[in-house]
Amino acid sequence: MRKIIPYGRQDITDEDINAVVETLKSDYLTQGPRIAEFEEAFADYCGSKYAVAVSNGTAALHLCALALGVQNGDKVITTPITFAASANCVRYCGGEVVFADIDPDSYLLDINKVRELLENSPKGTYKGIIPVDFAGRAVDLEAFRKLADEHGLWIIEDSCHAPGGYFEDSKGNKQICGNGKFAELSIFSFHPVKHIASGEGGMITTDSEKLYEKLLQLRTHGIVKSDEKYQNSIEFAEGSSVMSIGVETYPGWYMEMQDLGYNYRITDFQAALGSSQLKRADEGLDRRREVASQYYEAFKNSEYIKGQSAVIEGHAYHLYIIEVENRLGLYNFLREHDIFAQIHYIPCHLMPYYRQFGWKEGDLPNSEEYYKHCISLPMFPTLTNDEQSFVIEKINSFYEG
Ligand SMILES: *Cc1c(COP(=O)(O)O)cnc(C)c1O
């Protein structure tokens, strides 16, 4: 029997397993050295100054929204064609999500639609934009930065689909996702269907020291451990009622909770797995790009494929999407042959949760039209050429009979 071909899956090597086992045998299961190592390696990979590892991508988004000070009623713009967490982080902080439509060719948040929203409302209405490097295609953050600056907005780049992806800026330079040059903050997920697996896990990259420190604090309950930053007096910290003459440092046990934070830490054994996986990230990307160009070649002249992921430089191909008629028929037919294609995504604004805020069908026609036809084909580095040929053959046979 043929084994199931999923749309995405992790690749765990003996080296990965050894890295985890070594960590399990070490002194630290959490809050140990593997976390800082992973952060440094990841910052290095993206080209950012700082990286903060967290428990998952959703926690990363939540911390970003908190660090940027999203509050009740703050309006933030994002795309509906994304995993709900991109939008939900705004709601966690009481903010209002304003969805803007996608560009039907790139499937990415359409900057012109964002500009329309900004130009048609009083200055200060919107606080930020959360563009998503959907499917692995890097958003042109240079253009978004310019627009955001004109209107005083921050940017959180949701780069869960695109570690190692890049766009070419106006000078022709490669700008790697999460490099800290355009977005205040960029976030990544290490769920097993993503490029780098750590079980659960996430990362935030930034070039801002201030945001970096805020993120560290919020990741661990809002606790500060630094003599220079304490707000209470040394006398209070010591627990003495008299002035302690000549004492200039706080006692060793002392710490302060200065903000309402969370426990969004990653463990050391997850970080060890993440670091080990990161070493093979570029290899995985190369293979993803190869698989993508093979799909592209197979379908470029086919009549029943109305659209597909572009073959462009810098695409990280978390997903390879085709747009078809009778998508339900194809989905079921592929399942019968143990090919588990998937749909990314049901438009967020039409989820029952978001409908309660007034979103309805017809609001974002490009996203809704895209949803009617999209299907994500198996795309992962260990997909064999045989398996891919089987997938292509089944799709062709479904339409050609
Ligand atoms: C996976 C994903 C997330 C959330 O990441 P988790 O680690 O699953 O919490 C957020 N945004 C996008 C675009 C994702 O694909």
Automatic annotation (TrEMBL):
Pfam families associated with the record: DegT_DnrJ_EryC1
Residues modified as N6-(pyridoxal phosphate)lysine: K194
Protein keywords: Pyridoxal phosphate
CDD domains on file: AHBA_syn (cd00616)
Domain of life: Bacteria
Active-site residues, as the UniProt record annotates them: K194
Single GO MF annotation: pyridoxal phosphate binding
Annotated coiled-coil segments of the chain: none
GO biological process annotation, one example: polysaccharide biosynthetic process
Family statement drawn from the similarity comment of this UniProt entry: Belongs to the DegT/DnrJ/EryC1 family.
Protein name, as recorded: UDP-4-amino-4, 6-dideoxy-N-acetyl-beta-L-altrosamine transaminase
Organism: Salinimicrobium marinum
